[in-house]
Every structure is written in C-alpha cells, then in structure tokens.
Amino acid sequence: MQDKEEERSLVNVEKKLSKDGYNQDFTVTDGRLHTMDTSTNKSYTPEEVTIVDFYRFEGESNPDDTSILYAIEANDGVKGTISSAYGVYADTDTDDFLKKVEDLGKNLTKKDK
C-alpha cells in the first residue's frame, strides 16, 4: 500500500495529470493565462478557461509554505497546470486570474479519483 503523503506529492500529482493530457505549463501575465511553451504561444482570458481540479500541498516544516496546483482546460482543448503559493507568498496576478475564473462559475466539481 502506498503511503498517503507519497501519493499526494507534487511530483506524483504532476505525473498523473501529465498522463491525463495536462501537458502545458501556464503562467499569468497582464491578466491573461499564457502557455509557457513558445511553440504554441497561446493566451486566454478567464472566460476561456475552466479549473478542472486542484491539489493543495503543505510544507513539511512550515504550514505557511503551502502551494496549490490547478489543472486547467482552455476552450480550445489545451490542457495544463499552474501552481500558486498560498497565503502571504501568493502571486497576486495568478490568484486574481484564478479568482475571476471561479467567480464566473467555471470551476468544476472534483471528479472521483
């Protein structure tokens, strides 16, 4: 039986999401979500993406060291992930963008794993 903490490690979750087609890495700049892959070079507004799932990770020694990994799908089928620190270390551009997506009601309920 796999250790629950090991199962929920960031690396293992990223591997699982990659197998499920979430291969793009996203970043937020100027209020838009951008693919980090320069060959695709796409960007999206909050209205063009859906938060499909998210995973929260806490630091081993410091509860303030928390991050969230979001699985995101764009309206053109591009799937990828973006991570954000949680709390005082949060990237405000990323958090503002994801909050707009959530406010639009486009975040889905988590699927059974």
Automatic annotation (TrEMBL):
This is Phosphoribosylpyrophosphate synthetase. It comes from Hymenobacter coccineus. The lineage of its organism: Bacteria, Pseudomonadati, Bacteroidota, Cytophagia, Cytophagales.
